[in-house]
Design brief:
With about 100 residues, this protein is mainly α. It has a domain of about 50 residues. It is about 55% helix and about 0% strand. The chain is built from three helices and no strands. It is rod-shaped, with a radius of gyration of 28 Å. The chain starts with a helix and ends in a 25-residue tail after the last helix. The N terminus is likely disordered.
Length: about 100
């Protein structure tokens, strides 16, 4: 029995992971979460400024937005993005005829 033959797997029990199925790296995911959080906090600052500058009926809408945006920002920043792709069939190479060396 050759070493090469013992390494082969059958295609029925083989699970192939494609590069496109891989999750983003930790640093890439962390960076996108920080950017999302920073955008939400920027919107909160705008809400505070508009709460000071606008008349009374609109002011309360901006105050409510400024109060609840930190909660929304934290939830959105902690939400993981899932990259779900369709499953691919494993690649099976075309078998070529072997050269017989015994003749």
């Amino acid at each position: 029995m050759s070493l090469r033959g013992s390494r082969r797997r059958t295609s029925e029990d083989e699970h192939v992971v494609s590069v496109t199925d891989a999750q983003p790296g930790h640093s890439e995911e962390l960076e996108s979460r920080i950017v999302r959080y920073a955008w939400m906090m920027s919107i909160r600052i705008v809400c505070f400024i508009l709460a000071v500058l606008t008349p009374s009926p609109w002011r309360w809408m901006f105050v409510v937005g400024a109060v609840f945006l930190p909660y929304v920002a934290v939830v959105m920043a902690n939400a993981r993005q899932s990259n779900r792709h369709q499953t691919l069939e494993p690649f099976t190479p075309v078998s070529h005829p072997e050269i017989d060396t015994k003749s």
